[in-house]
Specification:
Elements lengths: L4 E3 L2 E3 L6 E6 L4 E7 L3 H19 L3 H17 L1 H12 L3 H22 L7 E4 L4 E9 L2 E5 L5 H14 L3 E5 L6 H13 L6 E3 L4 H10 L5 E5 L2 H11 L5 E5 L5 E4 L5 H13 L11 E5 H17 L18 H16 L3 E4 L18 E4 L6 H4 L6 E7 L2 H9 L3 E2 L1 E5 L3 H10 L4 E4 L14 E2 L2 E2 L4 H7 L1 E9 L1
Parallel strand pairs: 7-8, 7-10, 8-9, 10-11, 12-13, 12-18, 13-16, 15-16, 18-19
Antiparallel strand pairs: 1-2, 3-4, 5-6, 6-22, 11-21, 14-15, 17-20
Helix pairs in contact: 1-7, 2-4, 2-6, 3-4, 4-5, 9-10
Bound molecules: ligand TXE.
């Protein structure tokens, strides 16, 4: 199936008529083509967005909200179709896409459709000076949204929904590795009655299509989720043009387990936080630190549970772990397993490719647990972004805190303990944008989402996202 660009409400081929193969990771076969869009396509998308801006930014909040909620309802009505498309494009189990990815994409539109009706700005009375200040929150204009392949529609809509809710027009690019559901979203936007040109979706490579978006002098804000190196590049390109930037980048998140936790709950959640979505979530707890007194028991129980995970075809309802997203990503993850061995890591389970019968060319890998001799080894420091976790024991709160913080990233951290004082001490000191205590990836869309250090700048979610996608303007009136 061939994918087209969605520009000004129309589906069209790239101007150059150049195409890129689209792979199905579950069998390694090409199953369609996507536009290899050039600067000219991005320019056309920009022009469509620019001409729609006046009308969209003047559309009442009630009407904007109604359309966003309509998009959300249409996504829900098409759940099965979208979940199957996401799974085929990405390799994740259909059941996961159906339970998480697509419902969350629908929630993103519903949430921001509601949030915009509650978004208020401030006013300040200058007492004794006979003046009042009020702040307008005006949409920026045309903004760029660029998203990755791990949670394709989920993260694509996490940016687009607040951008649109705030009254902007959007030029968006999904990952070239997983473009399908973004393409299907265009149909839904038309059906929901979204004005032509308000949302434009351009497909293609990061280095050409993505680059044209970030370089565009009149696309004044960029919201990006992806690799840290790409984020650094975007920052460099955007800075001299003074663009607003929101960057959600990589993570190498600690999962810290104390002996006083609720053990069974911790064990089950840790399996999930290690391997959900084949470990390809920036929030996965890929560095597991376990208090020494329960380390041996944890190691045995955890490995036993991980061995029970079924690696299989994404459409098989018994599958826990589907295919990795691409051949090159599989190779990258396998290279890290080799590096672990060279660094004297012990592979406690996994480490091998899996031959799924009938799908021998798919990108399957066993869930892998590596016991590391030190927290300073590469597999414990660098983002692997696959079904690979490290484990090691710790002796004291101070030690584990130091190890947890001794990486360049700072996205999220998970803490398992029933000691309230320790919870408070640790959550204050962990260098992370998000700390989960006795849970993982529990999300409330009103909360600020994002990381510190090399995990990015800015926060998404709730009113933070609406603030990002608007410019505050203070008006001071003397009377
Ligand atoms: O990401 P890229 P990749 C991490 C993970 C992974 C690594 C690289 O460790 O192995 O990043 O993944 C677009 N201008 N994460 O190479 O390249 C690109 O087309 C504008 C963490 O897939 O950063 C895609 O749409 N755009 C992460 C998006 O950026 C450019 C999720 C992300 O791709 C561009 C994914 C350019 N010059 C990977 N170059 C997370 N934080 O969740 C690329 N892009």
């Amino acid at each position: 199936m061939n994918i087209k660009n969605y520009i000004n409400g129309n589906f069209q081929n790239p101007i150059s008529n150049e195409w890129i193969d689209n792979y199905n990771p579950s069998n390694g076969e090409v199953y369609g083509e996507i536009p290899n869009s050039s600067k000219a396509d991005v320019e056309e998308a920009y022009k469509a967005a620019k001409s729609a801006f006046k009308q969209w930014s003047q559309t009442t909040l009630e009407e904007r909200s109604r359309i966003l909620i309509k998009i959300s309802e249409l996504l829900e009505a098409n759940l099965q179709r979208f979940a199957e498309a996401e799974s085929k494009d990405n390799g994740k189990p259909v059941a996961l896409a159906k339970a998480v990815d697509i419902p969350r994409a629908a929630s993103n539109f519903r949430f921001f459709g509601n949030a915009i009706t509650q978004f208020a700005s401030e006013s300040h009375e200058s007492v004794g000076q006979n003046a009042i200040n009020y702040t307008l929150r005006q949409p920026i204009g045309v903004v760029g949204c660029i998203s990755p392949w791990n949670l394709p529609l989920y993260l694509f809509t996490w940016k687009i929904a607040p951008a649109l809710a705030a009254g902007n027009c959007v030029v968006a690019k999904p990952s070239e590795v997983t473009p399908m559901t973004a393409y299907l979203l265009g149909e839904i936007c038309n059906e929901a009655g979204l004005l032509k040109g308000v949302l434009n979706i351009v497909h293609g490579l990061g280095t050409t299509t993505g680059q044209a978006i970030i370089e565009h002098p009149d696309i004044k804000a960029i919201s990006f989720t992806g690799g840290t190196a790409t984020g650094a590049h975007i920052a460099k390109v955007a800075a001299p043009m003074f663009k607003k930037l929101s960057l959600e980048l990589g993570g190498k998140n600690p999962n810290i387990i104390f002996a006083d936790c609720d053990y069974e709950d911790m064990l089950n959640t840790t399996v999930r936080s290690s391997f959900a979505n084949q470990g390809q979530i920036c929030l996965c707890g890929s560095r597991i630190f376990v208090e020494a007194t329960i380390y041996k028991k944890f190691k045995t129980d955890f490995v036993e549970k991980v061995k029970q995970l079924k690696v299989g075809h994404p459409s098989d309802s018994k599958t826990n772990i589907g295919a990795l997203v691409s051949k090159s990503h599989l190779e990258k993850v396998k290279d890290y397993i080799k590096i672990a061995e060279e660094e004297n890591g012990v592979i406690l389970c996994g480490g091998q490719e899996v031959n799924v019968q009938g799908y021998e060319n798919g990108y399957y890998l066993e869930p892998t647990v590596i016991e590391v001799p030190t927290d300073e080894c590469r597999v414990n420091q660098e983002e692997i972004f696959g079904p690979v976790v490290t484990i090691m024991p710790f002796n004291s709160e101070e030690d584990v805190l130091q190890m947890a913080n001794k990486v360049k990233y700072g996205l999220s951290a998970t803490l398992w303990t029933n000691d309230l004082k320790r919870t408070m001490r640790m959550s204050n000191q962990l260098q992370a944008g998000i700390v989960w205590v006795n849970t993982w990836m529990m999300r409330d869309l009103r909360t600020p989402f994002g990381g510190v250090k090399a995990s990015g700048v800015g926060r998404e979610g709730g009113f933070e996202a609406l603030r990002f996608f608007t410019e505050p303007k203070n008006v001071c009136i003397k009377y």
